Fold this sequence. Notes:
By secondary structure, the chain is an alpha+beta fold. It has two domains: 22-89, Nuclear Transport Factor 2, Chain: A (Roll); 91-165. The chain is 23% helix and 39% strand. It has three helices and ten strands, in the order αββαββββαββββ. The chain has helices at 2-19, 37-46, 97-106, and strands at residues 26-27, 33-34, 51-57, 62-68, 71-77, 83-90, 111-120, 134-140, 143-149, 155-162. It has an eight-stranded antiparallel β-sheet. The longest helix is centred in the N-terminal third of the chain and has 18 residues, at 2-19.
Amino acid sequence: xxxxxxxxxxxxxxxxxxxxxxxxxxxxxxxxxxxxxxxxxxxxxxxxxxxxxxxxxxxxxxxxxxxxxxxxxxxxxxxxxxxxxxxxxxxxxxxxxxxxxxxxxxxxxxxxxxxxxxxxxxxxxxxxxxxxxxxxxxxxxxxxxxxxxxxxxxxxxxxxxxxxx
Length: 165
């Protein structure tokens, strides 16, 4: 029994930092936020082949920018260590000819700014799974549009922003 209590105490001391790991950003001496250790471990496990990794922290999430299979990607984590998703940076050429033709007609006068493909969502994602969808930002006519193109090539406007000059 005494041996069991000693082993239990040792295990508690040894594993306590892992159990109590938190994604609350750590402040450096300069006051900058750092990515939590738990998020770093989770990222390393999920993206073992990632290279050229850089991290940034803002008020909404922790973001890793990296290369995987020679493609630029971003992975996002909230401050509770929850993986939010990963996207691959792409361009208009990734879209089908049919989709590009539809965009040319439906959004004439708009210019494509960014194209990203959602490559991964967490297993417990509570919204419509948009894995393999493209998110495109368009600019024109005093507005910026954010559209989603589903794998079935359905196009929907997710957000519209007015551009102030």
